[in-house]
Design brief:
This protein is an alpha+beta fold. Helix content is 29%, strand content 32%. It contains five helices and 15 strands. The protein is globular, with a radius of gyration of 24 Å.
Length: 299
């Protein structure tokens, strides 16, 4: 009587383990990690600490002289300047499900630098940064925004589409723009002519390194002779020249898609654990199948 029950229990455990693996993977991919912070950084849920994971729906605020560097699971980077309020409205990334990619952010105050990750590269249009004056859609991009009434945009690499009631304008690499209101079309401006209220935060954001996650930084420091705990800036994330030609309203060449994001050590560990558990269950099922076959062949 116990023999028929055992295969059923094994099959049930196998299904539950597979479902748990999918759920754990989605949960890991849904969060962002605060890889670096300096000064007073808080969220709507309390103080923020380095290494903390933040989920969609979280609003983060930086104080005077503070910065926060967020690293998402698709290697998208978001660097917040001082006196900034930034909300992660939605974020979803699963490596094998590009149709589910989504990244929606809101800059309510201050300045931010955003460098696209795998989701933005493989699924153009899924990443959106909303500001009071417009919606910005990066296209394989590293760019900065400062809200100083009006809003100013500076594109370091790739291209950014600025859309509001006045229409849509695409700005390419090494260009800058001014967005006066939600009904006024974005206008190109000289980078050298940016007001200090915008150029100062842009300088600080461009000078700050975009750091790797703590687990990766630790591995890097172990292998490096210099012993630095901060890995080099990612490709395409470099300080923009202080002087450039006039900004162009025409579309710039979109930068090549970044390499696909590799999973973090935490996600690798969880996947390996679930994989081992699933393998054991498969082995149990195979063993049970052989045992049943043997019983049938030799009455």
């Amino acid at each position: 009587m116990g023999t028929p029950f055992l295969p059923l229990m094994r099959r049930t455990l196998f299904v539950l383990a597979a479902a748990g693996l999918v759920t754990a993977t989605q949960q890991v991919q849904a969060d962002a990690e605060v890889v670096y912070l300096n000064g007073n950084v808080r969220s709507d849920r309390g103080p923020v600490a380095q290494g903390q994971r933040v989920s969609p729906g979280t609003t983060i605020t930086t104080g005077p002289g503070a910065q926060a560097d967020l690293h998402f699971s698709d290697r998208q980077r978001v660097l917040l300047g001082e006196n900034t309020t930034f909300r992660i409205a939605a974020f979803n990334y699963v490596p094998r499900e590009p149709q589910a990619d989504r990244a929606s952010f809101q800059l309510l105050r201050g300045s931010v630098r955003l460098a696209s990750g795998a989701a933005g590269s493989r699924s153009p249009g899924v990443v959106a940064l909303q500001i009071p004056q417009a919606t910005l859609s990066p296209r394989g991009t590293d760019f900065m925004v400062a809200l100083v009434n009006p809003a100013y945009l500076k594109v370091l690499q790739g291209a950014v589409a600025v859309t509001n009631g006045g229409g849509t304008v695409v700005f390419g690499a090494n260009s800058a723009a001014r967005v006066a209101s939600g009904s006024a079309v974005a206008q190109p401006v000289f980078v050298a002519a940016l007001p200090s209220a915008a150029s100062n935060p842009f300088y600080s954001l461009a000078a700050a390194p975009m750091r790797a996650p703590a687990v990766q930084a630790t591995a890097s420091s172990t292998a490096s002779a210099a012993g630095s705990a901060v890995s080099p800036p990612a490709a395409g994330i470099a300080k923009a020249p202080a002087t450039q030609a006039a900004a162009s309203g025409a579309a710039g060449a979109v930068a090549p898609a970044s390499t696909a994001a590799s999973p973090s050590a935490a996600s690798i560990g969880k996947s390996a654990l679930w994989g081992a558990w699933a393998a054991l269950l498969v082995g149990a099922l195979a063993s049970d199948s052989v045992s049943s076959h043997s019983t049938t062949s030799h009455p």
